[in-house]
Amino acid sequence: MPDDLYHRDILAWSRAQADRLRRVAAGERVNDVDWEQVIEEVEDVGKSQLEAVRSLLALAIEPALKA
Questions:
Q1: CA distances from residue 33 to 26, 58, 65 in whole angstroms, order as listed
Q2: How distant, in Å, are the alpha carbons of 14, 30, 40, 45, 59 from that of 54?
Q3: pLDDT (tens digit, 9 = 90+) per residue, 2-38?
Q4: Per its UniProt entry, which superkingdom is the organism in (predicted)?
Q5: What residue spans define the domains of the chain?
Q6: Distances (CA, A) of 47 to 4, 15, 28, 51, 56
């Protein structure tokens, strides 16, 4: 489903997609989920969290390496 709302207002898009996914989870047939973008966003969240952990670990061990 091409949805230019993703490019115009990511917050509104994410709220609409979350609502649609909740309806899917409840067993409703929903045909307007923007699956391609939802999948990409989920992957990006995982990558972002991993990068944040790596950054925090580097900050935590840096003093020990300098010592």
A1: 14, 38, 48
A2: 27, 38, 21, 14, 9
A3: 568 888 998 999 999 999 999 999 999 999 999 999 9
A4: Bacteria
A5: 5-66
A6: 24, 21, 30, 6, 14
